[in-house]
Design brief:
By secondary structure, the protein is mostly helical. It has 23 helices and 14 strands. The strands form six sheets. A three-stranded antiparallel sheet has the order 7-11-10. A three-stranded mixed sheet has the order 12-13-14, with no helix packed on it. It has a two-stranded antiparallel sheet with strand order 1-6. Helix 5 packs antiparallel against helix 6. The longest helix has 49 residues. It is a multi-pass membrane protein. Belongs to the chloride channel (TC 2.A.49) family.
Amino acid sequence: MNRLSPDGGFDGNGNSESLATPLLLPQRSLTNSTSQVALVGANVCPIESLDYEIAENDVFKQDWRSRGKKQMFQYLFMKWSLCFLVGLIVSLIGFFNNLAVENIAGLKFVVTSNMMLAGRSKMAFFVFSASNMILTLFACLITAFIAPAAAGSGIPEVKAYLNGVDAPGILSLRTLFVKVVGSITAVSASLVVGKAGPMVHTGACVASLLSQGGSKKYGLTWKWLRFFKNDRDRRDLVTCGSAAGIAAAFRAPVGGVLFALEEMASWWRSALLWRSFFATAVVAIVLRALIDVCLSGKCGLFGKGGLIMFDVYSANITYHLADIPSVLLLGVMGGILGSFYNFLLEKVLRVYNYINEKGTVYKILLACLISLFTSCLLFGVPWLGTCQPCPPDALEACPTIGRSGNYKKFQCSSGHYNDLASLIFNTNDDAIRNLFSRNTDSEFHASSVLVFFLICCVLSILSYGIVAPVGLFVPVIVTGASYGRFVGMLFGSRPHSSLNHGLYAVLGAASFLGGSMRMTVSLCVILLELTNNLLLLPLIMLVLLISKTVADAFNGNIYDLIMKAKGLPYLEAHAEPYMRQLTVADVLSGPLWTFHGVEKVGTIIHVLRITRHNGFPIVDERSEDDSRVLSGLILRAHLIVLLKRKDAFMSTPVERGGGGAEFSAADFAKRGSGNGDTIDDLQISAEEMEMYVDLRPFTNASPYTVVETMSLAKALVLFRQLGLRHLLVIPKISNVSSLFSCLI
């Protein structure tokens, strides 16, 4: 809080007495330059915290008592129905996303390949680079001008939202539209980006929009939806949406639930586990049904290989103790490379931020340059590769004529293929399938795989920061798979080794994911569901544990680094060691603005205008001993409702009976994200400014409070685990007046 002059407040009778009450007795200097707490919120984006705590005022209690079995059934039925709708809609979007990408990118590669076969290499490059440029430009234009919040993967924003931070526009309808369309065009533009992160953001947007509680503008005011006009239920449904997004991206329902639990959610309970599992199960069933339709050839170029399903390693595998050292090496190197990848990406994003600050034109120009550079590399580098004769025992046509396959002809003569083009001149999904494929140990040169690894690493870092909906999940997988396959070529050809190069690619992807994203359980299950082989479980567990442990010694996970770079506050689950040495009284700032139980309208208007606080303690004075009593906490949004309705205005400062009977819980229900009324929307006359309001019926009489001597570490754990926005700090000596404060 910023320190305000105490002369700016008024008492309940309009006298010049400050409502900025004294705080706890100062125990330190007001300037806390040595503690990390002083840096929190220094340069953050315009955000608003979310109210997950239930305001137990008289209006809420009356509404809760009036609910019968019918209302309870409606509430439970709608919770499960909305989870079903989230799963259904997200699965349809995921299917449409992949259908569009596979056909757009496939058509581009087919046309370019046909030109190559006809000997028109220059025209092929022009068509390839021009189509990539147009797709990239379209994705950037709609992102920059329609929904800038849709840029990036969206996982850091959703993670911050579930932590209690509501950034403007991150879950709006426009963001959803741009996220879907922009992700399709960006991935189809052959940028080394993924669509898994945007699918998580898409699922969160769908869940948030469904949980808005209806819309008067569009006539969606079904009374059954009224139960969800609060941040608490929206948070739960957004968690289910993020799980459904991963399930739709990788067709990994269990992995989606674990991803939401391990990486996204800051607050979890068993009931939420069941609902998120139900949503991901709906996703899996719908996708399976739609894929069966596409397998019959009704989806154009889409259908071969399934929906981002790398079902390429279903053979039985065996491994021995002699294979463990090479697996350990994969884990250690994956942790080092993953942390270095995060370091480079953070530096590049800082440079991009400097460029983007110059204006929209520079953002678009940067994206176009990245697209042109990508096209030159993807089309030019395969010319450096050597042509190899097709293997006589190939399991598919060689050379590959068309979009996908292990044996890209490119510039080679009949009966030969270009192994470098099979990796580079392809979609990311097909490149991963080629790297993961079994019985292909002799199909790729080690130099080709190394070049592909370096290109993927560079292009994925350069492509992520553009103003378009792009993700990191798939680029990290393809980069790790190429690194793992290269290591397999170096160590996997030993006489006693039973691990082939495809298995090394899977383990390399796991190690790179663990080193970059620092997840273990969810990544393990996602990779198992991707490869459809439970026998890989021990090895994947081993490399994930090692890579995460090694990488943690260098820096944080990639999403936390991006979240910090974007200025999104995030409250960690654990307390820092220095917090054990501080009490909550050490980190308070002021002044604290309070109201009396019966307050003057003009005073409320004045305080709301000069402060940005969301909650205000209600403090009364006992006539017997002049001691001060904490009656509770009232929210800014509830005060604005009272001032807007004017039904609670009184001409005299007396306590009003009835407990706010003229109001209902629906009057105080929170509307969609960022759509609430502000103090500037109110029209209050001079006569009404002299009236009074009894705030007690609308005050949360049971706010969470702690003693001033509580350690900061304990307060943080309490604040985080309960999902609080306000925590009141009260004095240890109860007979000392005006010695309490409020952490907001």
